[in-house]
Amino acid sequence: MALAPWPPSRSLSHSPPPPPSSARAMSLSSVSAASQGKVGVVQMTSVGDLDANYATCSRLTKEAALAGVKFLCFPEVFSFIGSKDGESVKLAEPLDGPIMQRYCSLANESSMWLSLGGFQERGPDDSHQYNTHVLIDESGKVRSSYRKIHLFDVDVPGNMVYKESRFTTAGDTVLVVDSPFGRLGLTVCYDLRFPELYQCLRFKHQAQVLLVPSAFTKVTGEAHWEILLRARAIETQCYVIAAAQAGKHNEKRESYGDSIIIDPWGTVIARLPDRLSTGFAVADIDLSKVEAVRTKMPISEHRKFESIWKSSSP
Questions:
Q1: Is 76 a catalytic residue?
Q2: What is the mean pLDDT of the chain?
Q3: Residue 11 near residue 305 (C-beta atoms within 8 A)
Q4: Out of 70, 148, 218, 289, which one is annotated catalytic?
Q5: Alpha carbon distance 261, 25 (integer Å)
Q6: Cα(241)–Cα(26) distance, integer angstroms
Q7: What does the domain layout of the chain look like in residue ranges?
Q8: Is 254 part of the annotated catalytic residue set?
Q9: Crossing angle for the helix pair 98-110 and 50-66, nearest 10 degrees?
Q10: Which residues are bridge partners to 161 per DSSP?
């Protein structure tokens, strides 16, 4: 696991899965021993009921395990989406609390890594939480947790005003984790609009797979979701796994959906058959493809911006 303060220094299931295949776990510069690389990306509609959401997550995890998935990625706010301001803060728990321990047991029982984006972690005071991306390994151990850096304080045109910072405290640490599926860069939702974070994950911390659990609004999703995700994949030459909330959660909130997996060339290699259904899509992460793309187009060697930035006058 690699940690770094943010911002960086001025140097800068519905469709049947494909048959199982193997991918390669890769070191920072070369491909090493083969390992299973079958990953799944979930699409779901969370509601204001912890038990109902867990039942959905549990069902999808068990279905994914039967399909041979070894790493399953859930969207932001997978465990709870409330309909009233401040409701999630009252439910917020530490990572060793009963809510997360339930999901740890699920990972252990299924022998599967889980990416749980956007958990309501207890914050620094009674009126704030952290929006935390939690990574659990196949033994049920919390391997890492990333607190969302960029908070969604936005007046969405023709939609609603969102003020995430009213109840959420931002994180300040970039997180990269080594796993059997590559070197994982953890982010959450609105982070997607800030390419410097993804540049830091790739070029400073050598990420190979970027995780973007999200709950994009319908308006912003229609306009920007896929194009931003593909841009992040292309400019970093990483796989991107983007699990999304979908449909109407309550009378106030609706999410765009469209959970997808994108390869390092920017091609969508897995998605659900529609934007609203609950289920998961499956793809194989082949880290030799990351190596091949980066070798043929060595942008890491051609980057000049850091040196230009350092030498520029204030």
A1: yes
A2: 88
A3: no
A4: 148
A5: 18
A6: 18
A7: 36-311
A8: no
A9: 10
A10: 155
